[in-house]
UniProtKB/TrEMBL annotation:
GO terms for molecular function: alcohol dehydrogenase (NAD+) activity; metal ion binding. Residues 187-365 form the Fe-containing alcohol dehydrogenase-like C-terminal domain. Pfam families: ADH_Fe_C, Fe-ADH. This is Iron-containing alcohol dehydrogenase. It comes from the Bacteria. The keyword Oxidoreductase applies. It comes from Desulfovibrio desulfuricans. The keyword Calcium does not apply. Keywords: Oxidoreductase. Residues 8-176 form the Alcohol dehydrogenase iron-type/glycerol dehydrogenase GldA domain.
Amino acid sequence: MKFAYSMPTRVVAGEGCLVENAAALKEMGKKALIVTGRHSARANGSLDDALKALALNGQGYVLFDKVMSNPTVQCAFEGAAAMREGKCDFVLAIGGGSPMDAGKAMALLAARDEAVDPAAIFSTAYTAAYPVVAVPTTAGTGSEVTQYSILTNDAAETKTSIANPLIFPRLAYLDPRYMSGLSQTVTVNTAIDALSHAVEGMLSVRASAISDGMARQSIEMLAGCFGPMREGTLSVQNRADLLCASTLAGMVIANTGTTAVHAMGYSLTYYKNIDHGRANGLLLPEFLAFTAKHAAGRVQNILACMGLADVADFAALLGGLLGKRETLTPEELAHYAEKASKAGNIGNCLVRPEKDDLLAVLKAALG
Ligand code: NAP
Ligand code: FE
């Protein structure tokens, strides 16, 4: 038995938790940089709640509401400049993974005395960050409890992670009411991202009894929601379960990292604009099939959490949620296999795939 586990984020959950627990926010600083996307935080009540909580505490704020999906390096620099200009001393990131990840990068960039060269954003040795508070409004990425900020890396034509314990959110507020108006597509794609985190965590060389416990619980809760999700009949309790499962899966990957599924998925997002969670879901069954050839027991454990007998049942379940799949050319598939084979998270795989294995998975999924 040899493993490390840590989770520094304080999690507060429940309907109305942000305003009810405004006092916890007071400890974070005097003036927030609120980081959101363009629309949804206004519509789902999360921004209003944040403004109420800040007002209760007498805290000021600057609003940066320009984060796009798959945030760019430039967006992170723009937010950091707004943070410095507004003399903000903490980040309050509200939204899906995109605003949360962008907010984390802003907290790092703004805290640095020396300017960072945009070309070196992923390689700079950061030594400080402003505190980050996260309010997820999708149930999928788990970014509210991870040390990862994933940005579009145009120089390398992929998505790249800044992984730094300094950007673990200090505090996360989980309120499932914010997700009640999420579209079917975003609900499905984000839930599958969470599933992918929990499953990949169980297929990581860094898995432990602690991360496995959380991953199993997460997979069971997600599996309980797939029926109503497909039918479009998610209850309030289902929404709460999805959010909790997503945060649990975030706690898993904070400790295990992701694996080949995310490594391959980044090319689907970068080159084909396929949503992050959908990209993972398209690849997950074939990666499970590959892993099952060498670690059958481990894969059976994962399937058992969903009450499934074999990988074919799992493929049918995800196929029912994802609908018609994309088809890619042999050249595209070879290119993505080549790129994924060089990604850092390949090293996390319990059964390490070679480039040909990755190509076989990609072909079976999307050829
Ligand atoms: P997202 O890009 O944050 O949001 C997708 C869409 O959903 C946006 O149009 C957004 O609108 C909308 N939206 C968000 N919350 C909503 C709500 N409550 N109601 C209605 N619409 C809502 O998508 P995501 O899947 O959550 O995040 C994906 C990103 O997270 C990717 O960049 C991925 O690489 C990253 N990620 C990070 C980690 C990590 O550990 N850090 C892990 C996995 C994935 P607005 O733009 O108007 O807000
Ligand atoms: Fe993910």
